[in-house]
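Dear colleague,

Following up on yesterday's call, I've attached the two folding results inline so they're easy to grep. Please treat them as preliminary; we haven't cross-checked anything against experimental data yet. The first protein's sequence and structure tokens come first.
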Amino acid sequence: MTTITVLGAGNIGSAVAGIAAKSGETVQVIDRDAAKAQTAAGNGTGSVWGAAIEGDIVVLALPYPAYADAIAAYGPQLAGKVVVDPSNPIDFSTFDSVVPAEYGSAAAELAAKLKDAKIVKAFNTNFAATLASGEIDGTPTTVAVASDDEDAKKAVAGFVQAAGLRTVDAGPLKRAANLEGMGALQIFLGITEQTPWPAGFKIVK
């Protein structure tokens, strides 16, 4: 059994923790609010920010600007871990990427700063509601997964599929830039009320 640690108990963090629990894995949620962490963790472990990471898979369910603090607090503990990036790093006034140009994506930036971790891009093209419910428009929610590490990609896909959701292999980590573009577009459609928040992009198989 794998332990999955989720940093952040917001909508995405809570939804991913729920997926992990449904898959049968052990769940730890870390948040600055201990009560929120425990609520998101359900029968798992809720921990306050600064607590040791227990998971082999770590999901950074935080806003992109908070990544710097997460790396400062937990960088050494993330060595050797599968680190999942669900962020959509965008400027909400323009819906353009705010990642420094030399990186191209938030996932690539993480890979550069966490050289000993195995970075996976996942969950950023899904609204939290469709992750929590496990379905969209009557079909299982599909999570796109990208990574340069095939074993890390399979580990993330494995617990997502075990919870009843689908996955698609989006290829190597360089595809994270494409996924972040999709995420930004989907958020724009939601904010402009062209797409409802319990909906979003649907992949038909």
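Below is the second protein, in the same order (sequence, then structure):
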Amino acid sequence: MKDLQAFFANNARSDLNKEIVVSERFKGQDGKPMAWKIHSITEAENEEYRKGATRRIKGKNGTQQTEIDQNIYLAKIIVASVSFPDLKNAELQRSYGVMGAEELLRKMLFPGEYAALVQQVQEINGFDQGMEDLMDEVKN
């Protein structure tokens, strides 16, 4: 019975945090690259983002099928996992001429920087496999 206590909510780490440098382009007052802060999300949150990225499409013979938009799904997970900078900050969004945290990420990061952030967010959330494997798992 003692071993079971390790799984009790009060003994489990519920939120993992990590600081990462996504880009050398964002420098603090000291001239050093600014670290982004990311944290883990729960499976309940993940399910919500997956549902938010799922669309119904017409299949053959008028049947309805569901499809997950991988880009929307990833952006939702990233926004939920980034705690600094505050991607929902209106002033930050205005500085890039966008509205919305997902659009902000697309505008402020280069493709390689975005990919590096995706990788770190996947890692902190326990995704050990590649995104294609993850998307296949999500679809099932």
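For the second protein, one point worth flagging: Strands lie at 17-20, 36-39, 54-58, 64-68, 82-84.

Best wishes,
A.L.
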